[in-house]
Amino acid sequence: MKQFIFIISIAIASSQSSLITKKYKDEIKQLSEQDIVKKAFDYIEELEPFTLKNNITITEIPAPPFNEEKRSKAFKAMLESVGADEVFFDGGGNVHALKKGSMDTNILIEGHIDTVFPMDTDVKVRFSGDTLFAPGIGDDSRGLSVVLTLLKVFQDLNIKTKANIYFSGIVGEEGLGDLSGVKYLFNSGSISIDYYIAVDGGGLDRIVTTAVGSHRYKVTFKGPGGHSWGAFGLVNPHHALGRAIEYFTNDADPYSRTKGDKVSYSVGRIGGGTSINSIPFESWMEVDMRSENPKRLNKMDKIFQKAIKKALKDQNKLARTKDRMTVDIDMVGNRPAGKVDVNNALVQRAMASIAYLGGNPTLGSGSTNSNIPFSKQVPAVTIGRGGEGKNAHALNEWWMNKNGDLAIKNAFLILLSTAELDI
Length: 423
Ligand SMILES: [Zn+2]
What we know:
Aminopeptidase, 2 domains, Alpha-Beta Plaits, single chain, elongated, binds zinc ion, nine-stranded mixed sheet, alpha+beta
């Protein structure tokens, strides 16, 4: 999840406190007055050094999509050392610690294991005053460390619930991971999930209840390749790619300005080529388009497809030999749009809990693991990991523990009110 404010692209930002019904306000207030919750809140504060230490340990283990194994194994060991009824990997590479309840309801709370950074990125955490700098320090190492602390609170205070709670690390959230971990979870049916909570995003206030859908493509123009002088006149894939970007931008930009739901487009990476004095044999780019509205997204997709085909045709007209270029358009990401109703108990509890803790609950949209439960009508929210941070997905990402405990208390209240105390 991802662009503007600490990872997730947020489209809406007005407070929605007025949407909280009295029933849930009262429920959260009454729950918070119980001794066990007061104890848990004190314990969360006491555990701040534990949470911070875990955040650093996790950050310093590289975990690009498809290469999360080392971090997953370390996270599993960390869950085991906290303790649970069962700690296990599922077939999709996700890791879960199960705290059993007395009934059949299943709640899953997670952080995502992967980062956007390549394996050789320097992920050593640097301190400047009370600010921590490292790629991935917030997104989503902090989410994983929040999950670990929550498990420790339930475990050490021996809090019994009616629902089963899975404390999880999910793989493949970022980029070309294309939500593979959460897709596995819901498609395999290995755990039948009734409520899904992702800890991935900024501070306390924001709750993601709407999924931004996205289409992602890798486009590759291909030709025979040759010498820039000796084979001059041969079709040039880079020239076609440049033209394709121009055609796409020419039509995508005006469309993105038309009235209606936001729709975005971006060429994220380009590559290919052999040397300065070679006509390349291939030229590729990765393209990302997004909208909350599937119709707007599909229209943008059509504009994109048309631009690629036109670029191929026009550039091939310049050929001075009989060779022609081809193009492969591979869909490498397809994240569905979807949403959860504001009156759903999980959303109500999240809003009531944030308000109880002095925050300003704000519903928004994003592209997070919750996309998948949203699209399958399973109640889900993505909540903030707390503290303050910026520059997610950049090498200068930073995070600071400014009232970070509030986000952990928030997650705890949402979890406990949904799982119900079993006294
Ligand atoms: Zn994230």
